[in-house]
């Protein structure tokens, strides 16, 4: 069943199906929970998340668009604080498809003076597929970057391993310094990295949670890893002091310094596929 309900003052598309359950906020086009049947949550949502239409929700899958990070104002773009509309929902052989849309408005043109259409499709089943298709509906070309900034729910960051990130990264905790990565990434401190040549499949091994989460991205040119660790978590009003322990972000990213150019009428899709292995 697919219903639109109120949750913490926001409109949420709620999906309940034999294969999985999910919730998608129209504010931000933001998936805030996903749980395959018989499993624990796969997507992390902050226990102190604020459901404020002026802010981005902490956790879930923020849609960063039309830029990544601080390349513009607001940080990570306006899509994650915009009100998306529900275009359709239907069932297919794998589960339920929910499609949302966002088009330019006076408010978006005030911060980014271009005409666009964004289609955001969620396939909710034993696996989760999220695809953001951006189309230039303007009469001249524009550039964009962004990310599907997924927060994964893990049992303990100190016992998590990530493979498939590729050989090199830009370290955002060191002003974008170019570094060579380890084959198996583990966490002991704040980690904020743009991996520039990720493999097709990134695997999060949640050792204490006794499962693997496979993440396959498409249409991206980087994969970002983020865990704020303790000091930064304490400084953020919408994260509990120790909640960094149970999350890690693995993001399907278009780098802000390597944006995609769309000519009038052209489209590009950025996607992420999430599948667990218990
Ligand atoms: O993707 C990593 C990152 O850009 C970090 O630098 C960190 O700031 C994080 O995203 C969260 O950003 P936000 O604007 O949601 O606080």
Notes on the protein architecture:
- The structure is a single chain.
- This protein is mostly beta strands and 278 residues long.
- The chain has one domain: Distorted Sandwich (Beta-galactosidase, Chain A, domain 5), CATH 2.70.98.10.
- It is built from two helices and 22 strands.
- It is globular and about 50 Å long.
- It starts with a strand and ends with a strand.
- The protein binds 6-O-phosphono-beta-D-tagatofuranose.
- 6-O-phosphono-beta-D-tagatofuranose (TA6) binds next to strand 19 and strand 20.
- Pfam families: Aldose_epim.
- InterPro entries: Aldose_1/G6P_1-epimerase, G6P_1-epimerase, Gal_mutarotase_sf_dom, GH-type_carb-bd.
What structural keywords apply?
278 residues; mainly beta; 8-stranded antiparallel sheet; 2 helices; 47% strand; globular; binds 6-O-phosphono-beta-D-tagatofuranose
In short:
The chain is mostly beta strands and 278 residues long. The protein is 5% helix and 47% strand.
Report, as a whole number of angstroms, the end-to-end distance.
Answer: 26 Å
Percent in strands: over 45%
Low-confidence segments, ≥5 residues, pLDDT <50?
A: none
CATH class: Mainly Beta
Strand count: 22
Q: Quickly count the helices.
A: 2
Quote the average pLDDT: 97
Largest sheet: 8 strands, antiparallel
- What is the count of structural domains? 1
CATH fold field value? Beta-galactosidase, Chain A, domain 5
Question: Are any ligands bound, and if so which?
Answer: 6-O-phosphono-beta-D-tagatofuranose
Which class of secondary structure composition applies to the elements?
A: mainly beta
Assign the CATH architecture.
Distorted Sandwich
Topology as H/E string? EEEEEEEHEEEEEEEEEEEEHEEE
Estimate the global geometry from the Cα principal axes: globular
Protein name: Putative glucose-6-phosphate 1-epimerase
Catalytic activity: alpha-D-glucose 6-phosphate = beta-D-glucose 6-phosphate
Keywords: Isomerase
Family: Belongs to the glucose-6-phosphate 1-epimerase family.
């Amino acid at each position: 069943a697919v219903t639109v309900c109120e949750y913490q003052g926001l409109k949420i598309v709620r999906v309940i199906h034999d294969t999985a359950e999910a919730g998608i906020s129209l504010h931000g086009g933001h998936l805030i929970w996903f749980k395959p049947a018989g499993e624990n949550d796969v997507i992390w949502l902050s226990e102190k998340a604020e459901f404020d239409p002026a802010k981005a929700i902490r956790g879930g899958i923020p849609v960063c668009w039309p830029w990544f990070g601080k390349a513009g104002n607001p940080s990570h773009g306006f899509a994650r604080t915009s009100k998306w509309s529900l275009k359709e929902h239907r069932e297919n052989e794998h589960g339920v498809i929910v499609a949302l849309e966002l088009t330019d408005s006076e408010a978006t043109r005030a911060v980014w003076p271009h005409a666009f259409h964004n289609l955001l499709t969620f396939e909710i089943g034993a696996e989760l597929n999220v695809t953001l298709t951006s189309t230039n509906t303007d009469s001249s070309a524009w550039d964009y970057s962004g990310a599907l900034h997924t927060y994964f729910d893990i049992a303990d960051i100190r016992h998590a391993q990530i493979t498939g990130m590729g050989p090199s990264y830009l370290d955002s905790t060191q002003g974008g310094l170019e570094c060579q990565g380890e084959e198996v990434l583990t966490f002991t401190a704040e980690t904020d990295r743009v991996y520039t040549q990720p493999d097709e499949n990134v695997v999060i091994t949640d050792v204490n949670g006794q499962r693997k989460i496979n993440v396959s991205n498409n249409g991206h040119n980087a994969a970002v890893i983020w865990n704020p660790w303790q000091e930064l978590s304490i400084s953020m009003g919408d994260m509990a002091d120790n909640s960094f322990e149970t999350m890690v972000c693995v993001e399907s990213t278009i780098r802000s310094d390597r944006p995609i150019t769309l000519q009038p009428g052209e489209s590009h899709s950025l996607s992420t596929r999430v599948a667990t292995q218990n």
